[in-house]
Amino acid sequence: MGRRMKRAATKQEQPASELITRRIAELGDWRGETLGRMRRLIREADPDVVEEWKWENPVWSHGGIICTGESYRKAVKLTFPKGASLKDPTKLFNSSLEGNVRRAIDIHEGEEIDASAFKALIREAVALNAAKPAKRKS
Question: Is residue 87 part of a domain?
């Protein structure tokens, strides 16, 4: 048990960007390539994006979470916690459509995502985070 706790503490001490880079490399297949490409597009869309490591997954934030990046055997999933509030004219969202708040993009092997549409979605998520009302003082 002590070993497990030590490993977790060591992981937390590493910068999130290193953990994300390591996850991409560990995947070592189309999922790593896809996650790496989506990471590049996120950074291009928002040069001020903050990379975090939460729930054992990459998280990109700017004034709040923009999206998370999970990898599964058959898909790379980008989950937008406020996705239902975002305009999606090109229909990038193809998962979690039944929820009230969250939306996701599942990318399967061999699929390509429209880079300009994805970057527009990222910028819109950043703008939505910036527009959230200030918390009231009690």
Answer: yes
